[in-house]
Amino acid sequence: MDKVVATAAEAVADVPDGATLAVGGFGLSGVPNVLIQALYEREVTGLGVVSNNCGAMETGLAVLLAAGRIARVTGSYIGANKEFARQYLAGELEVELIPQGTLAERLRAGGAGIPAFFTPAGVGTQVAEGGLPWRYDGAGGVALASPPKEVREFDGVEYVLERGIRTDFALVRAAKGDRHGNLVFNKSTRNFNPLAAMAGRVTIAEVEELVEPGEIDPDAVHLPGIFVQRVVALTPEQAADKKIEQRTVSS
């Protein structure tokens, strides 16, 4: 039951080229930077990434993106990541944009063994009707567009069918974890990390504080260890290395 792996490099050693990854984090909050850096150093390429966004301020997934290691992104926010936008518009990157709540539920559903579900989000738009540009041709045209999805009416309301998401691996970051893989997340880091962890067939968690089994009150566990296969304990320096995307101070 001891799922602790000595190093991040060892934890990601079997991630192959072309693997699909569910990656936790919201903006710069709760991003598994140490595991991402370990993947970067392994020079893994052709990755398919499922994450709310694709890094910012040259950190997180932006490290892999800038190095040309990501082939496809499934997410809900491009934001201020200019390199993300450049690669997408240049036809270098395939991008599936999804409403944020739908992305969250697709990850959760995949992890819960639910193959698909109906949601009202996106009905009457290209999300349901198809035609969203997944890949541009580099000259302003669309090389690959999203297909139409099934729409069904329930009680007089239309809903669109969305598929659950499963990935080869998941990379997440938790504030606290034990050797059995039970995890606790801090505040907004809980947004996408538990859902990404559920979606991965092999889930790797970097934890800021490693404790022994039994030290976490069962009622305080945010993600049970059944969803986690590997745990990497961060050093105090790694745990404290947190950047602020938009710093706001009073005068």
Automatic annotation (TrEMBL):
Keywords: Transferase
Pfam families associated with the record: CoA_trans (PF01144)
Any GO molecular function: CoA-transferase activity
SUPFAM superfamilies attached to this UniProt entry: NagB/RpiA/CoA transferase-like
Source superkingdom: Bacteria
PANTHER family: ACETATE COA-TRANSFERASE SUBUNIT ALPHA, KETOACID-COENZYME A TRANSFERASE
Family listed: Belongs to the 3-oxoacid CoA-transferase subunit A family.
Protein name: CoA transferase subunit A
